[in-house]
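Researcher: Structure for this, please.
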Amino acid sequence: MSRSPAWLPLLLLAGCPADPPAPPPGPPPLPPPAAVTEAPPPAPTEPAATTPPDEPAAPDEPLPDPWDAAKPVNPGPARPPEGPAAPPEIAREPVQDGPVSRFPGIRIYTEEKRLEVDGMICLKNGPALELLGCTRRGKTHESLLLFDCEPEQLYLALVILGLEATPQVSEFGEPIALTRGDRVVIEVSWKAEDAPEGDPSAPAPTDGRVRRRVEDLIWDRVRQAAKPRVGWVFTGSRHVEVPAPPDWKKTMRVFAATYGGNIVATYHDPDAILDTPLLEGGDDTVYLPYSERLPERGTEVVIHMRPWVDGEDGPPLSELIPDAPPAPDANGEGPR
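Model: Predicted structure, C-alpha cell format:
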C-alpha cells in the first residue's frame, strides 16, 4: 500500500479556497439555425427554334461620347456666343505662271485684259435672286453662281486689269441707278454635255464648251424677258468693323466682301464688289434664275470677266438710264 505524501495533511488542515461563484444567468441561448436547403437548379430547356431574318439587323445607334471625368469643378465664366471666324490672311500678290498670273481659283490674262474664275451653278430653280455670285460664306440660297475664290483677290485681279472701283451704294436695296464707274462683262461657260436639253437660245459649243452672257441666265419679271445686257459696275465693296475673336468684345476691320461672301449683286449691296447698274437693283423681287437655260445645280463652270467697251458691248450708262436719279459719290454728293 502506497503512503500519502507528507505535505498532504498540512494542505487539508489549511483548507482549500472556495470555488469561484457561478456567473449570473444570461438570456436563454438561441435555438440553432434552421438548415438551409438550396433549390435544385432548373432543368435545362431546349432553345426555341428560330429562322434567319430576311435582312441583316440594323446596327445599333452609336453611343454618345462619355462625360469627361477630368472636367474641372469650376469651369470658369460662360463661353461667349459663337460668331464668324476671322477671315484668314490671304496673299495680295498673284503667282506668275508664264503669261498667266494666278490667285487660288483665279487666272489673270493681263495682256488680253481678261480673267477666269472657277465656280459652279448654285441655283437652277429657286427664289428671287439678290446675287449673281457669292462664295460659300455668302447668301448661297439667293445666288445664281458660286465663286470659288477669295473676294479680296478678285478685287485685286480687277485692279490688275486696269479697272477702278467707284462706290455708289450706301445701303442694301438703295433705289438708285448706278450711272458712273467702270463696268465689267461677265460670261459663264460649262461643258457641252452639261448643257440643258431643249434650249433653242443656246449658242453652239466651242472647243467642247457652251459660253453665255450671265444676263441671259437671269429672268426679269418686270420685262418678262432675260435681264438686259448692261454689264456690272465695279463698286469695289468696302471695309467695315466687326466683332473680333476670341471674346467678340473688340472689333476688327475687314473687307466686307470677304467677310460676308457677297461678290456680284442683282439687289444693290454696298458690300459687293460688282453691282447691277439698273434701277431694278432696288427691288429684290425682280430677278429669278432662268431655269430652262441653266445646267443642273452643282455643275462646274468657268466665270469669264473683262472690261466693258462702250459701243461694242452696249451703250454708255448715261444713254441707257437717261432719267435715272444720280448716284451719290463717295462723299454722299451727286456727280458734278
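Researcher: Any notable elements?
Model: The CA atoms of residues 52 and 58 lie 14 Å apart. Confidence is low (pLDDT under 50) at residues 7-21, 46-80, 330-336.
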